[in-house]
Automatic annotation (TrEMBL):
CDD domains per record: DUF820-like
GO MF annotation: an example: endonuclease activity
Superkingdom, natural source: Bacteria
Protein name, entry field: Uma2 family endonuclease
Region annotated Disordered, chain positions: 1-26
Signal peptide region: none
Keywords, comma-separated and alphabetical: Endonuclease, Hydrolase, Nuclease
Domain Putative restriction endonuclease: 34-177
Length: 191
C-alpha cells in the first residue's frame, strides 16, 4: 500500500513537537533543558570550571550594568516557535516580556556561551546561527581552551570583533563598555 504525503508533510518549515510552555511540566531535577526544533535537550549540571567562567562573565557585566538592563545566568530566551535556549550569560532590556520560561529575543542584547564537551556543535554553530536569525546584537563564546571570541551582528550575520586568550584582556563597547580579563574565567587555584 502506498502512502500519499500532503503538502504539510513535505513542508520543511512545519514543526511539531514540544513548545516552551511544555518545559514547565518537566521535573525539577537539577538538569538543564533547552528546546531545539521541538526536541527537549537535557544537559547535566555544568562542571565547576564551567560555572566559574559563567560567574566571571556575569561579574564583569554587572560592574557597569545600566539600570535599564538585567544580567542573567541560566535564564531562557525564546528563539523560535519551538526553540528555547538557556545561554550561560545573557543581557536583556529591563522591559523585555518574559513568558513560558524565557525572555523574548527581541529584547536580548547579548548572549554568551561557555563551551562544554556536550555543547561544542550547539555553541559553535547551531546557537549562533539561531541567535543571529533572532537579531540578538552580541554573541560571546568561551572555548574549552579559554579563548574568548566576541561577535557583533552586522547585516544579519555575526562578525568577529574581538578575541583574547589566557593572559589577555578584552575591552568591548557592547552591550556597554566592559573589560574582561580572560584569566578571571579560570578558577583561582588554576591560574
Amino acid at each position: 500500500m502506498m502512502t500519499t504525503l500532503t503538502d504539510e508533510d513535505m513542508d520543511p518549515f512545519t514543526i511539531d513537537g514540544h513548545t516552551a510552555a511544555d518545559l514547565s511540566h518537566e521535573p525539577e531535577d537539577g538538569l538543564g533543558r533547552e528546546l531545539h526544533d521541538g526536541v527537549i535537550y537535557v544537559v547535566p549540571p555544568p562542571s565547576n570550571k564551567h560555572q566559574w567562567a559563567e560567574s566571571a562573565l556575569e561579574r564583569a557585566l554587572l560592574r557597569r550594568c545600566p539600570e535599564d538592563a538585567y544580567v542573567f545566568r541560566g535564564c531562557g530566551v525564546h528563539t523560535g516557535a519551538n526553540r528555547l535556549y538557556v545561554p550561560d550569560a545573557m543581557v536583556v532590556k529591563a522591559n523585555t516580556p518574559f513568558h513560558d520560561n524565557a525572555y523574548d529575543a527581541s529584547g536580548v542584547l547579548l548572549v554568551a556561551e561557555v563551551v562544554s564537551p556536550s555543547s561544542v556543535t550547539m555553541d559553535r554553530a547551531a546557537k549562533p546561527a539561531v541567535y543571529a536569525e533572532c537579531g540578538i546584537p552580541s554573541y560571546w563564546r568561551v572555548d574549552r581552551d579559554l579563548t574568548m571570541h566576541c561577535f557583533e551582528l552586522i547585516d544579519g550575520a555575526y562578525v568577529p570583533v574581538a578575541k583574547a586568550s589566557r593572559g589577555e584582556k578584552l575591552t568591548l563597547d557592547h552591550p556597554w563598555p566592559v573589560t574582561i580579563t580572560v584569566d578571571d574565567l579560570v578558577l583561582p587555584h588554576e591560574r
